[in-house]
Amino acid sequence: MTTAFRRPSDRRVSPVFLGIVAVMAVSGWAVWTGFAEQTGFAVFLFVTAAWIVSLCLHEYAHARTALHSGDISVGAKGYLTLNPLKYTHALLSIVLPVLFVIMGGIGLPGGAVYIERGRIGGRWKHSLISAAGPLTNVLFAVVCTAPFWLGALDGVPLPFRLALAFLALLQVTAAILNSLPVPGLDGYGVIEPWLSYRIRRQVEPFAPFGLIAVFALLWIPEVNGAFFDAVDALLRGLGVSEVETYCGLDSYRFWQEWFGDQDPGCALIR
């Protein structure tokens, strides 16, 4: 029998996470009210903070599911505090996903929490642990698009509406990419328990390069076009237009205004 000594701090929400939530709330209020003189900067802070919050919740979902599946070590590792600095690799988990948002406007999944799989029995439990993260992105996307598909946009300021559209784009792209059955991504983690030992051993060396391979494929124009066509189709089904997501990205990149690179059409809409 295994005995675990749990400290209250193992599950107490981290001040770091609460600080990120505070930035999201204040900047979201500034976008909604038009309080900020430079709305674009407020949109940047709001979307970036919300994106980091979703990354934290993504990893928390993995850890929490693992805890209930038998891995009691996740608490001592700080994974239940929602503190992004506790992740296996903060650079991969937070910094790189934020940089990809800034550079490419895409929700690329990051690094992860370390789950002690040996403590967990049952293939379904392993699959559920891997699926918990992308399902969190799906839930986040549903929340972001709720005003659109519910027809509840009356009274929602346009800058806030565009910010929500872009944030929804990030969540949808993250959910799709992370669900791909590619080694190193959660989609492969879902099917891995059901593969033979021989296949798992053969695939294991490629796991560190899975995310890089996906990123490289997205640089191919045909693949990139097909991917974003699918993303746009999903968002249209949720009531979000391609114009709204595009202008949301344009507003997010507030620094383009300094160089005269912002889209004039989006400027007219805003």
TrEMBL record:
Protein's UniProt keywords contain Cell membrane: yes
Keywords: Cell membrane, Hydrolase, Membrane, Metal-binding, Metalloprotease, Protease, Transmembrane, Transmembrane helix, Zinc
Presence of the UniProt keyword Protease in the record: yes
Membrane-topology annotation of the record: Multi-pass membrane protein
Subcellular location: Cell membrane
Family: Belongs to the peptidase M50B family.
GO molecular-function term, one example from the UniProt record: peptidase activity
Cofactor (UniProt): Zn(2+)
Annotated GO biological process: proteolysis
Chain segments annotated as transmembrane: 16-35, 42-61, 90-115, 127-150, 162-182, 203-220
Organism encoding this protein: Streptomyces atroolivaceus
Protein name: Site-2 protease family protein
Record InterPro entries: Metallopeptidase_M50B, Rip2-like
